[in-house]
Amino acid sequence: TTYTDFSRLYEYASNKLSKLYRQTIIFSQFMFPEINALFRLHNKNFSGISIITSIQSPPKLSTQTVLSKFSTDSHHNSHNARFDSFNEILSNIKQQRLAHVLLFVSSYIDYLKLLKNYGNDVFVFICE
Questions:
Q1: Are 122 and 114 spatial neighbours (Cβ–Cβ below 8 Å)?
Q2: What are phi and psi of 34, to 5 degrees?
Q3: What does DSSP assign to residue 82?
Q4: 10-residue block means of pLDDT along the chain (128 residues)?
Q5: 112, 102 in Cβ contact below 8 A?
Q6: Rounded to whole angstroms, what are the CA distances from 18 to 9, 26, 40, 110?
Q7: pTM exceeds 0.70 for this model
Q8: Which residues form the UTP25 NTP hydrolase-like domain (predicted)?
């Protein structure tokens, strides 16, 4: 304490009242009795407690999911058949001029193949 500048300390900190001047924020979708007990027992803020609830419900977005199945003769030709079916799907999307379309590519090898053949001309890539 020989190097402490007491003029910079707040008076409530030196009187051990700093627990009354803190901000506690808890985010929860639902009010639980445990949260109320936590505030009642441990939150002794000088200004009191404010509970804010949302008036507006979140928007309900409707999305359409289209799953496609392709057929192949053998396991060895499956990569080429998958890429050919993707080309058909992509040409349909381009003809219909659909906006906000997300295509998920699960295989990194397929991702590299798409990147090589299309680049950034047709769509934007999102990668790790």
A1: no
A2: -65, -35
A3: H
A4: 76 80 81 85 78 76 81 84 85 80 78 78 65
A5: no
A6: 11, 19, 17, 58
A7: no
A8: 3-48
